[in-house]
Amino acid sequence: MAIFDLLKPVPGLRVMVTGGAAGIGLGIAKAFDEVGARVYVCDVDPAAVAAVKAAHPSIGAGVANVAERTSVDRFVDDAATALGGLDVLVNNAGIAGPTGPIEDLEPDEWDRTISTNLNSQFYVLRRAVPVLKASPAASIVAMSSVAGRLGYPFRTPYASTKWAIAGLVKSLAIELGKDGVRVNAVLPGLVAGPRIDRVIAARAQTLGLGFDEMKAEYLSKISLGRMVTESDIAAVALFLCSPAASNITGQSISVDGNVEHL
Predict the structure, then answer these.
(1) Which whole number is the average pLDDT over 48-55?
(2) Which Pfam families match (predicted)?
């Protein structure tokens, strides 16, 4: 096989993406679809799921709340049945969580962030891993964040979940190595789009700053001085599921322009 062919995921991969009807998840789903994979996504928003079905009829999609075990169980069963098995799991679903000093955070908001960002990863894994073990080239990509390698003041619930995902990936890589299942985390930085705009606006309000001033401060902490794109993240996900990455597991790979601190 030519070296450049190794960089392409094997055609026909069966790929499941959580939170795959918008943002990074949709970008990853479309990227796999474009290279000939069979893709099935879920999202909590029925309208977003309907939009994916309408715009991308080759991508299967279903409504699921990843913070609820029974909903996850249904989704994984539906996806595995529709795809005829599973080769790739992209555990992407997550929320930004609240912004504010730790003493002002509502416990319900903390619980919601933990449930959506961390518990969901476990709920999906416990059902998907037995299916993945039957694949000859199984790969799990877990979406962490630059907040999973740096401290993130005023975003403690979110950062806590993203650090936990890095630990989950490292542990699972050891556990599943004997089964040939590779497990890696992708750590996006500031991804251009409406979501990071909302995050910047919330932090600006917390600190009493204007939006543009807060955005400039965020960018000043990035070595390359710019945000990344959903396509940047999707490209790394494709690489991690390609033959070129067949010996990469247990890694947390930052795609962030080198965020120096948060």
Answers:
(1) 97
(2) adh_short_C2
Closest by Cα among 85, 72, 81 to 14 = 85
Quick: pLDDT tens for 4-35: 778 778 889 999 999 999 999 999 999 999 99
CA distance 30 to 35: 9
Cα dihedral value 144, 193, 139, 47, nearest 10: 110
SS3 17: strand
Rounded to an integer, what is the distance from CA 100 to the centroid of its chain?
24
For each of the domains in the chain, give its residue range(s) and CATH number, in order of start: 8-189+229-255 (3.40.50.720)
Which position among 123, 152, 158, 218 bears the catalytic label? 158
pLDDT of 2 over the 80 cut: no
158 belongs to the catalytic site: yes
Burial letters 126-137, b for 16+ CB under 10 A, else e:
ebbbebbeebeb
Contact 237, 28 (CB under 8 A): yes
